[in-house]
Amino acid sequence: MQLRLTPHCICIYLSKTSSHYEAVIHTLNQTFGQPFWIKETLINIALHHELDRRKAFLISLYHHCALASKTHNALFLQKLIAFCAKPIKLIITRETATDASLENTVTQIDPYRLLQAHKYESFSSIRRKYLRLAKAYHPDTLQTGDDALLQTTTIKFHQIQEAYETIKAEKKRQSAA
Hints:
5 strands; 56% helix; 5-stranded mixed beta sheet; Helix Hairpins; single chain; alpha+beta
């Protein structure tokens, strides 16, 4: 499964042989029902509660992709939420060699880039950058009632933690070798 944002709509590329296919189709039909679909595209719905359902669906779909690929991209999630009022287009694809690789492209992030560090920096320098970012994105430091912002910040905080742990394990292996 792959999510793409275009200026006109949100595209969900989904193979019928994908492990996500049944769950996505079931959720779409149960959440939105068939009347809202026109030629595989979920039309715009102006009602506030419909936008909330769209947003909840897209966040759930994003987390499903992120869990499958074991990565997160908070910026992509923010854009996805901002696009929630746009039409959602479901594109059923044939299984090809590239479909498996597309599943992991949605949310991959380089841990060094996430921590704003370089691969050849000392571990202590990377740790300082990690601590600075972790403090900036820690959910407890956010003083707002905005649930979407809190969720985005929490995801970013977890990304920072995972990136640090990845780099820490890599540096440990390098020093042991």
